[in-house]
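Researcher: Re-running this chain for the archive, since the previous output was lost when a drive failed. Same request as before.
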Amino acid sequence: MTSTLRGVAAGLVLGVATAVVVLGLAILPFLNPVWVGFEQDRSGVTAWTGYSGETVRTVTGSILHDLVIGPPDFAVTADGAAVLNEREREHMRDVRRVFASFFVGAAVGLIVLAAAFALASGGRRRTLWRCLGRAGAAVAGVTVVGGAAAMVFFDAAFEIFHELFFPAGTYLFDPRTERLVQLFPEQFWVESAAGVGVVVVILGILLAVVGRRRGRAHASTTVPR
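Model: Regenerated structure tokens:
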């Protein structure tokens, strides 16, 4: 009974670590000026802001720099005026804290997986690969179902996400007057979220296939004694 509980607990830990690492890897490609600029063009950001395309790229590059690298000042200016007001800057600092916490969790998850492989051998490594394969399949399946629901009920999903991670009322902005939601309008977030979801599903399926194959390979090379 005790060994069964330990096995279940270990499986849950590995599953959560796998999910967090997969999500972290899926988000990284979208934190770059190429993707952001592409989505901003599709979302008509120049029309929303009244900025030229060059100004949009300069302003967005500064915001991304402060978000990913820091320091989190978010004090970029355009035409001699601050782009973001204090509420917007404070929200972006909150976003940076959430991102930093998540990627610390992803790093811990990666360490857990690396340690599990380093300590496993023989039959245990076979079991580990199978566990990772099941986790990959679960991540892909949950993302497909959850992502479909989120796309249908995007506004509700967006609201729930912000309620979970940000102080109440700090994430609501007026698209008529505030630059943050003009630079990153709803279409930007819908399509970016869909892109992340697609990458998560692809990574999950790849992990499921590799985990199953590696598990079988270890099974065929393990000789009973």
